[in-house]
């Protein structure tokens, strides 16, 4: 296939995303108010707790076997590499742009975490079904492509809620502490200035050293029992054994990690999908037209089909907040765009081609395409949820998402064309 043919193939899925996203933005307008803030919140809960877990469970259960697990083992490491490289580049953006402290976690999160689930779930099936696709039979391509996208979504959710969540939490907590310290110092200085009478200099002592010594001698001679120095007690701390220390640190780490967020419904759905796919007895009961309980798998597939349009509509509605603007520096937005759409895709080509050269990745064009595409995606939408949760850069996050997803229509088309050309 020629480069222009590949460009046409890769542009159709992005156009579909743009059309549904535009519809979501239109429905979220105040004068329409079909997909208002409350409606998006309720629909997002349905997607989070029902649609996404059903989609991941059904697709993984159909395609996961021991053979496919051996073939896909590199994907979790590939996603981890995107987070590590993105975090390093995000730190560089912070240093160059001198971003405010309360935005440090947001900048690193946007550079590190891509939309590893929803965008792939939309793009991969569309590419497979497009005429002229280099991936062969559309049904087989969609079957394995959805498995790759589902695994990517599950692994991405684990990294997102275990790493980016805590980065934003620590960044917001530091900013809160700095504000509290500043407020305390201002309050303390104002109190001290109110205590000192007018006309007195705050730098002059109220009593000279001789006066203090004389008064102490006078008290010691006439009132020896009324002046007593405070006694310092040295209480021995109970010795804590090494295993108890480890246990205490582990409990503290697990509390801060927030396992409820880490084991999100999507992650739980992935675990169930792995169990169904890898255990032969359960697989025979659920998977296949002749399976006794195939109705459960069919129902899961039916629910999962609602995830893609619902998520895309919500994304379009959320992007409206970015149109209101904020005081974020343009250099920060530009830095994030360069990291996500220039630096990461170029480094992704090096990583995937290097893994292919050393035999870490098998010669499967669709699998290589998914690995490459993971480096070129816009930031994860759940970062906006985290910024709202901690109150750190909500408006700034909306503006960043608006620019990233607006330009994604161009960059995803171009990089998808390049990636298709590389793997085909």
TrEMBL record:
Residues 193-212 have a biased composition (Polar residues). Residues 193-227 are annotated as: Disordered. InterPro entries: Mem_transp_PIN-like, PILS1/3/4/5/7. One of its GO terms (cellular component) is endoplasmic reticulum membrane. It is a multi-pass membrane protein. One of its GO terms (biological process) is auxin-activated signaling pathway. It is found in: Endoplasmic reticulum membrane. The chain crosses the membrane at residues 6-29, 41-61, 73-94, 106-127, 147-168, 262-282, 302-320, 332-354, 366-390, 402-423. Keywords: Auxin signaling pathway, Endoplasmic reticulum, Membrane, Transmembrane, Transmembrane helix, Transport. Involved in cellular auxin homeostasis by regulating auxin metabolism. Regulates intracellular auxin accumulation at the endoplasmic reticulum and thus auxin availability for nuclear auxin signaling. Belongs to the auxin efflux carrier (TC 2.A.69.2) family. This is Auxin efflux carrier family protein.
């Amino acid at each position: 296939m020629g480069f222009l043919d590949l460009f046409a193939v890769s542009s159709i899925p992005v156009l579909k995303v743009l059309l549904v996203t535009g519809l979501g933005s239109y429905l979220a307008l105040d004068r329409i108010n079909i997909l208002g803030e409350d409606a998006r919140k309720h629909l997002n809960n349905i997607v989070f707790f029902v649609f996404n877990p059903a989609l991941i469970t059904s697709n993984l259960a159909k395609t996961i076997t021991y053979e496919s697990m051996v073939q896909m083992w590199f994907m979790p490491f590939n996603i981890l590499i995107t987070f590590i490289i993105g975090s390093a580049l995000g730190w560089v953006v912070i240093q160059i742009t001198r971003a405010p402290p309360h935005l440090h976690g947001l900048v690193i999160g946007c550079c590190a975490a891509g939309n590893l689930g929803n965008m792939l779930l939309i793009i991969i099936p569309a590419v497979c079904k497009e005429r002229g696709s280099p991936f062969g039979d559309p049904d087989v391509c969609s079957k394995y492509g959805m498995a790759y996208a589902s695994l990517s979504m599950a692994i991405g959710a684990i990294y997102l809620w275990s790493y980016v969540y805590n980065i934003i939490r620590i960044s917001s907590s530091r900013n809160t502490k700095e504000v509290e310290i500043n407020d305390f110092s201002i309050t303390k200085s104002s109190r001290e200035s109110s205590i000192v009478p007018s006309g007195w200099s705050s730098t002059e002592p109220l009593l000279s050293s001789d006066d203090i010594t004389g008064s102490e001698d006078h008290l010691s001679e006439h009132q020896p029992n009324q002046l007593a120095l405070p006694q310092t007690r040295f209480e021995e701390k109970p010795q804590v054994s090494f295993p108890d220390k480890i246990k205490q640190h582990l409990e503290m780490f697990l509390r801060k990690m927030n396992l409820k967020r880490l084991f999100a419904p999507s992650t739980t759905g992935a675990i169930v999908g792995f169990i169904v796919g890898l255990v032969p007895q359960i697989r025979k009961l659920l998977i296949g037209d002749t399976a006794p309980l195939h109705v459960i798998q069919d129902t899961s597939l039916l629910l999962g089909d609602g995830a893609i349009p619902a998520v895309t509509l919500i994304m379009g509605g959320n992007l409206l907040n970015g149109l209101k603007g904020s005081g974020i520096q343009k250099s920060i937005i530009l830095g994030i765009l360069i990291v996500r759409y220039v630096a990461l895709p170029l480094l992704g080509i090096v990583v995937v081609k290097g893994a292919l050269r050393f035999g870490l990745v098998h010669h499967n064009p669709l699998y290589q395409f998914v690995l490459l595409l993971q480096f070129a995606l816009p930031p994860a939408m759940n970062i906006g949820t985290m910024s709202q949760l901690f109150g750190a850069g909500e408006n700034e996050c909306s503006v960043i998402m608006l620019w990233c997803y607006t330009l994604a229509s161009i960059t995803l088309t171009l990089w998808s064309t390049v990636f298709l050309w590389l793997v085909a």
